[in-house]
Specification:
Elements (H helix, E strand, L loop, with lengths): L2 H28 L13 H12 L5 H22 L6 H4 L1 H20 L6 E2 L4 E2 L2
Antiparallel strand pairs: 1-2
Helix pairs in contact: 1-2, 2-3, 3-5
């Protein structure tokens, strides 16, 4: 199994585990074991898991940056729902602008680091979408 196949297999495994977890939680709610309404404020962690799934293995620069955004937004939403560090939606939105700036600065470094993971068309000398 080459590295690309291993990456795809791990990605599919993690998506499957995520769906099993969500389905199990919904089933437990329907059977009365838990009340998901009381746990709704934990849903941003799903975004964090999705972001980590995009960032693991051998992602392209686009997948990595998308995963990083997903993690940032998931953590930001959770911090707002839980009011961590005194954060509310009305006072924490500048954090997203700061994160945007940081990601713009990191983008060239990520692109250089993950350039080998992009499929290149030898005739066009540019990555394929």
């Amino acid at each position: 199994m080459d590295s690309n196949q291993a990456y795809q297999w791990r990605k599919q495994l993690l998506w499957g585990l995520l769906l099993i977890g969500i389905g199990g939680a919904l089933l437990a709610d329907q059977l009365g074991y838990v009340k998901l309404y009381e746990l709704w404020h934990y849903w941003p962690w799903v975004l964090v898991v999705v972001g980590v799934i995009k960032m693991i293995g051998y992602p392209t620069a686009r997948e990595f940056i998308g995963g990083l955004w997903s993690v940032v937004i998931g953590v930001w939403l959770f911090a707002n729902f839980e009011h961590l560090f005194g954060l509310y939606f009305d006072n924490s939105w500048p954090f997203l602008i700061i994160a945007w700036g940081i990601i713009l600065i990191l983008k060239p470094f990520v692109r250089d680091r993950l350039a080998a993971n992009s499929v290149v068309n030898p005739h066009l000398k540019e990555p394929l979408p």
